[in-house]
Amino acid sequence: MLEGKVVAVTGAGRGVGREIALLCAAHGAAVVVNDPGVGGGGEGGDAGPAQDTVNDIIAAGGRAHANLASVADPAGATTIIEDAVQRFGRIDAVVNNAGILRDTIWHKMSHEDWRAVIDVHLNGCFNVSKAATPYFREQQSGSFIHFTSTSGLIGNIGQANYSAAKLGIVGLSQSIALDMARAGVRSNCIAPFAWSRMTASIPAETPAQKARLEKFKAMSADKIAPLVVYLASDASAEVTNQIFSVRKNEIVLFSKPRPVRSMTKLEGWTPESIAAELIPAFQPSFARADEVSAHVFGYDPI
């Protein structure tokens, strides 16, 4: 599917990113494996994970190069794309997978925890995508594959920073898809359900939380990679501006926000008439106030 292509995958030293890099290489792509090897909250750094993925790709007969830059740094993000072009001659697809978590309940969230997560997820997507854009425009082709989350699409407890970043990525992807369509460039999002270092940090104190975590453990990271390979390939030339999700062997297409109900009052609305007429009419269509992804996906994937 990717013979002759060059793909850059961020956060590819471990977990979902590693599986994506391995499968892209198995399908013929040369892969820039980006990962600074930081901890789950963005601390430290280790060249080992990125190099391990590269070594495994090369051992299987593929082509790969390790890049240790932080996507949060615009100059570092640019090196990811420059490494692809200088070492392999071009760049065909960007997989924005890198991420960190600094979960905490809203009233305890610090400015630093907010900025750190936004910088890696949302600004990181912008930085790497921006660096690849001139090459995509020149060659009149390219694919952006951004990783969002149901934490952003639906919401989640204790993840205001992560949720905001992940929904922001959807907005970014949609605008890129519209702006770059004339250049033959596409942009799509994937919300993965998979067991990784990041999902391992989900609290599991109550029996219900522990049961939910066990379900996550059955959703292996390698299940996400086939959709990424497809979206990076020429076979997906007509697929852009979409939001997908992968839950084990299930692939989901998400709708975008659309009007659900409307009501017109010819004489105009007052606060009192909103309370008396509008809200009672709208209430049956309200999303539940405590809704999280478990309410939307009320069944186990196979």
TrEMBL record:
Entry-linked Pfam families: adh_short
Cited InterPro entries: KR_dom, NAD(P)-bd_dom_sf, Peroxisomal_Beta-Oxidation, Sc_DH/Rdtase_CS, SDR_fam
Gene3D superfamilies xrefs: NAD(P)-binding Rossmann-like Domain
Residue span, Ketoreductase domain: 5-201
Family according to the record: Belongs to the short-chain dehydrogenases/reductases (SDR) family.
Protein name from the UniProt record: SDR family NAD(P)-dependent oxidoreductase
